[in-house]
Amino acid sequence: MELKSTRRIVTGHDASGKAVALFDAALPAKQRSPGGNGMTLLWVTSEFPVDMTSSADRAQTQVGVPPPPNGTIFRIVDFAPVLSGAAPVDHHQILLSMGIDPATQGYGRHANTHRTRTIDYALVLDGEIDMLLDDSEVHVKAGDVLVQQGTNHAWVNNGTTPCRIAFILIDAKTPLAWQKDWKP
Asked: Which one, of 174, 175, 177, lies nearest residue 69 by Cα?
């Protein structure tokens, strides 16, 4: 799958307090997984309320899938179509590569199943994809939006073209449902 870059513009203030564009450039997607998925990290915060006094490029912050405590992440993920006959993946290693502690996870319906202690806003920009939940799935396509509240899920692109989704993840409290850990 060809990985796309994304033009990112970040505004702020110059030394005199004038509103300016601090960053305006295309950010390349980086291959994120053996299946060919790509990810473009656009911005990360690690505090709330957010400190907007710095002109540092917060996209250079090293993070996994979840944001830092009291923080946020804004990223775009390109999901490659599933390849038939692909070798199985190690769920434990997938979680570690995502920066997720396997001990915090619930039912693993699919090798990419995970959950984060976040509220996620997702906007499907291009293509179609299936979001697998514990015992159901939701098919979404370009223009659809999701609000995900710490749910167990996996993204599976059963189509023939890549699917591009913009995600905003916001740190949250642990859902009470995690204490129940539903099992099939």
From this structure: 174
